[in-house]
Specification:
Structural class: mainly beta
Number of strands: 11
Strand content: over 45%
Radius of gyration: 21 Å
């Protein structure tokens, strides 16, 4: 038995020129923690655990500083924190660069970089890379291209995992009429249903 507690904070402001102002979340902070009434049985003797946070500081409509983390408080519990910057053009693409640090059963400090970009009305490219700052070095890269058709999204990609000496190919076909596209979840680029803006 556990008790999960959390708080969500939103600082808001208005942005935009005269007559075009809109309310935005300038700073968001979400935190959660779990209390274990029977800590010796359930959480290695620690009253609290599973603490996490998520902070997003929107310095502009297209530039955000991000940080999130999670921690357990018993001896070898996992502790993770990441921080980075996100450049975003909602209909065109985005790029992220950051670092992630993990301590606990395993230790790792990784540099991460990803981008998604709509090359034209019919094509979207995505790529990512990760490099461990320790002796492990290069972890892996990924690249994919998506063709936006009238009714289907077709994605072909490749990923290389240097740590496991593994190479993989990806192939995905997704209908455009779905209310929540996996492509949008992965890239942040909205792909409207066919015909939303007239004949294509």
């Amino acid at each position: 038995m556990t008790l999960r507690m959390g708080m969500r904070h939103r600082w808001q402001t208005k942005r935009g020129g005269p007559g075009r102002q809109h309310v935005i979340d300038w700073l968001t902070i979400d935190t959660n923690a779990t209390w274990f009434p029977k800590e010796n049985r359930d959480n290695f003797g620690q009253d609290f655990g599973l603490l996490d946070y998520d902070v997003r500081w929107h310095l502009g409509d297209r530039f955000t500083i991000l940080s999130d983390g999670a921690a357990d408080f018993f001896g070898s519990g996992l502790k993770m924190v990441s921080a980075g910057v996100l450049l975003n053009r909602p209909s065109r693409g985005n790029a992220y660069f950051g670092v992630r640090s993990i301590n606990g059963p395993i230790e790792s400090n990784v540099l991460l970089g990803t981008y998604s970009y709509r090359l034209s009305p019919k094509w979207i490219s995505t790529a990512g890379t990760s490099v461990d700052l320790s002796d492990a070095g290069n972890i892996g890269q990924s690249f994919s291209m998506t063709r936006i058709g009238e009714s289907l999204l077709v994605t072909v990609g490749i990923n290389v995992d240097s740590g496991k000496d593994n190479v993989g190919l990806n192939f995905m076909v997704e209908p455009r009429f779905l209310p929540k596209l996996r492509l949008t979840t992965m890239t942040g680029i909205e792909v409207p249903p066919a015909g939303a803006f007239g004949l294509e």
